[in-house]
Design goal:
Helix content: over 70%
Largest sheet: none
Shape: globular
Number of helices: 11
């Protein structure tokens, strides 16, 4: 794998955003809305609750982590969708570009956009609501790593789904994080869920992040085992998603599906 093709994919996305601010604004706008909305909800709950729970840390922290995961996933899918919307697949893969280079380019683009989104969320949460994420210390690194890896896996999986089912299936991608959030235990422990939902939740790497976060905020300490399990599951998910993308790409080339992306409307 060569670095120049990878950099070219990421650079193309940078030029697209620089020439069209409407592509870049959603990266900032939606995360800002989420932080402000949940920040005031958390502040209200703190004012009416006598439980002693710091809802700002628990709820706003969960929202920030979950939004970071969504930004990572969408960083991959939006870069892929640029080729769907412009019907550019034949042009892209007519070059000596390896699939591994293309996928890595999607990941690099996702890193750039998710870092911007994370910076905006941290700035708002700290400046407006006094949320100090540095209190997590070294735990912050594995938390973000698990969410980043799983976001990449889900982004590649969603891209493979659209490549196989066609541009019209794009609408299936956007609800995926919302559909997963009840199983991941973003705002509550998995123990409150039915057993079958708990079983699904244990297969989702983010569930280990949110369980560890709540334990740390409650002063109960943490165990490195669950976070290690989350990282291992996320890496397995990346391998499976990449394998599936390769299989679907091969199918699209053999059947001529890839060429039809350049001839059909994406509407």
């Amino acid at each position: 794998m060569k670095l120049r093709p990878v950099a070219a994919i990421a650079l193309r996305q940078y030029y697209l955003m620089r020439s069209s601010p409407t592509r870049a604004l959603p990266i900032v706008i939606w995360v800002a809305v989420d932080i402000i909305l949940w920040g005031f909800i958390s502040r209200y709950l703190n004012s009416v609750s006598a439980t002693g729970i710091n809802f700002t840390a628990v709820l706003l922290g969960a929202v920030l982590f979950w939004d970071f995961f969504i930004r990572v996933m969408q960083g991959v899918t939006l870069t892929f969708f640029e080729d769907v919307w412009s019907r550019n697949f034949v042009n892209i893969f007519a070059t000596p570009l390896l699939i591994s280079e293309y996928l890595t380019g999607l990941v690099v683009s996702s890193i750039a956009t998710s870092v911007v989104g994370l910076a905006v969320m941290l700035a708002l949460a700290t400046a407006v609501f006094g949320l100090n994420f540095l209190s997590f210390g070294l735990l912050l690194a594995p938390y973000l790593l698990v969410l980043f890896l799983f976001g990449i896996a889900l982004g590649v999986l969603a891209s493979a789904m659209v490549l196989r089912l066609g541009p019209a299936s794009e609408w299936l991608v956007w609800p995926i994080p919302a559909l997963l959030s009840p199983f991941a235990g973003v705002f509550y422990p998995l123990s409150v869920l039915p057993r079958w939902m708990q079983a699904v939740g244990h297969l989702l790497p983010p569930s280990y992040v949110f369980a560890s976060m709540r334990s740390a905020l409650a002063g109960q300490g943490y165990s490195s085992g669950p976070l290690a399990s989350g990282i291992a599951l996320a890496l397995i998910d990346i391998l499976l998603a990449s394998w599936l993308f390769l299989r679907i790409y091969g199918y699209a080339v053999r059947t001529g599906l890839l060429a039809r992306y350049s001839a059909e409307s994406t509407g």
